[in-house]
TrEMBL record:
The keyword Hydrolase applies. It is a single-pass type II membrane protein. Belongs to the AB hydrolase superfamily. AB hydrolase 4 family. GO terms for biological process: acylglycerol catabolic process; medium-chain fatty acid biosynthetic process; medium-chain fatty acid catabolic process; sperm capacitation; steroid hormone receptor signaling pathway. This is Monoacylglycerol lipase ABHD2. It comes from Paramormyrops kingsleyae.
Length: 461
């Protein structure tokens, strides 16, 4: 019997090749050349595939545009304030508050990417300012630490001005965003004192079974008192980032004496009320539940790094059961309820959040106050922003600035892709502080009643 190859008839032309096999090999598939042509891909099929490719590309581009928020416009901050001489002077002297904040074109309009870049890098090419670490013993046996950085230039007013800075949750003076801001402030003539949250520095052991909490002002107050005593001529600018914003506003409002020698205060990206914020942290809107998990995981690492100091010893308020709850915690609320509130003996989570939130104290602040938030901050729900807006509507000294973009402590600036080392946030704090310093400097020769000071300041401007 001849092989199938011997019987094969190979027909070649410019478009195709058809192989004819004998009937006994493929009786069911044997067909004429014309019939086989009908089973080949029709000429219209490549056009269909091209259309599908274009549709896929268009879909991907649409998703990218939506995720990166590329169609969102740039705009100046939305300002809430009263029409007062100080605020008019502020708007004349602080162009950053009245001009568009322009983030990097390709990714800067995404609050998630702004927040992620801040969380991952802090800042780009951050400097390394040199300071002295100070240790302050506390009445309960804890040891507060802060870093002191001297100015690198004369202040524009010629005065001695110190920025007392409270970083964000679990942060300290060695964080990149803090180093960048400190270096910039030093070069503008400011001395800087940066609180290291109790337990945040990995190389500093706790000396008592307590670490920083959401609104404890003890360590910050001790740092400010030390600065006032060491530099009796200095005036203060109080600055707080995120959780630090809550602490500095609470500190200023707790006791009117805390506002002595304070020129102004600045709070950035805080949530104002932990009790109202806790409900929003369990929502998946803006991936807030995911951020909650990440921050809780970071807090667990900080607590476990000081496990020996916090969970052993006769003075410890923690138990093995609390440690077990810590291991299984997946949210900040669970950690606050099982660990953090017990450092100060709060009976419930509700009591802890109410007592530690600045919303109950901030209305007592009489010094000029700038509150800054971003509308696309994935950590601070928009419902919380009614607090600073209402305050600015009622208090003459308060200005609330809400940017369209910036994320959480991001506020990066840049042309297209690569951000600049200095952010809009860094520059606006110093610009606001400079303006208040100039306002106070121009008031000094006037003296007299408040109305006389107002008239003199307006004439000077």
């Amino acid at each position: 019997m001849r092989s199938a190859v011997e019987y094969a008839n190979v027909c070649l032309d410019r478009r195709r090749c058809v192989i004819h096999l004998p009937d006994y090999l493929s009786p069911t598939v044997n067909m004429s050349t014309q019939e086989a042509q009908g089973h080949l891909i029709s000429p219209e099929m490549p056009a269909v595939f091209d259309g599908m490719k274009l549709a896929a590309v268009a879909t991907v581009l649409y998703v990218i545009v939506r995720l990166l928020n590329l169609k969102s416009p740039t705009a100046p901050p939305d300002l809430t304030y009263q029409d007062t001489p100080l605020n008019r002077f502020l708007l004349k002297s602080s162009p950053l508050l009245t001009k568009d904040y322009i983030p990097p074109l390709l990714w800067g309009k995404s609050g998630h990417l702004q927040t992620a870049l801040y969380g991952k890098l802090g800042r780009v090419n951050s400097p390394h300012p040199h300071g002295q670490r100070k240790y302050l013993p506390m009445p309960d046996g804890a040891t507060a630490t802060f870093d002191l950085f001297e100015p690198l230039a004369d202040h524009l007013t010629g005065d001695d001005v110190t920025m007392v800075i409270c970083p964000g949750i679990g942060n300290h003076s060695e964080k990149h965003y803090v180093r960048t801001f400190v270096d910039y402030s030093q070069r503008q003539g400011y001395r800087c004192a940066v609180l290291n949250h109790l337990g945040a520095l990995p190389n500093i052991e706790l000396t008592s079974p307590r670490m920083f909490t959401y609104g404890c002002t003890w360590e910050f107050s001790a740092m400010v008192s030390h600065i006032k005593k060491t530099f009796p001529e200095t005036q203060l600018v109080v600055v707080g980032f995120s959780l630090g914003g809550n602490i500095v506003c609470k500190y200023l409002g707790e006791n009117h004496a805390n506002q002595e020698r304070v020129l102004c205060g600045v709070s950035l990206c805080q949530g104002y009320s932990a009790l109202r914020a806790q409900e929003t942290f369990f929502q998946w809107d803006q991936c807030r539940r995911f951020y909650n998990f990440l921050m809780a995981d970071n807090m667990k690492k900080i607590i476990l790094a000081h496990r020996r100091s916090l969970f052993t010893g006769s003075s410890s308020k923690m138990t093995d059961a609390d440690l077990g709850h810590l291991f299984t915690a997946t949210s900040l609320t669970q950690i606050d309820d099982n660990i953090m509130r017990k450092f100060h003996g709060y009976r419930s989570l509700k009591e802890y959040y109410e007592k530690e939130s600045c919303v109950h104290y901030i209305h007592n602040v009489d010094v000029p106050l700038l509150l800054v938030n971003s509308a696309d901050d994935p950590l601070v729900h928009n419902s919380l922003l009614t607090i600073p807006r209402t305050l600015a509507e009622k208090k003459q000294n308060t200005v609330f600035a809400l940017t369209l973009h910036g994320g959480h402590l991001g506020f990066f600036e840049g042309a297209v892709l690569f951000p600049q080392p200095l952010t809009w946030m860094d520059k606006v704090i110093v610009e606001y502080a400079n303006t208040i310093c100039q306002w106070e400097k121009r008031k000094q020769p006037c003296g007299g009643a408040q109305g006389d000071e107002t008239e003199c300041s307006e004439d000077s401007s």
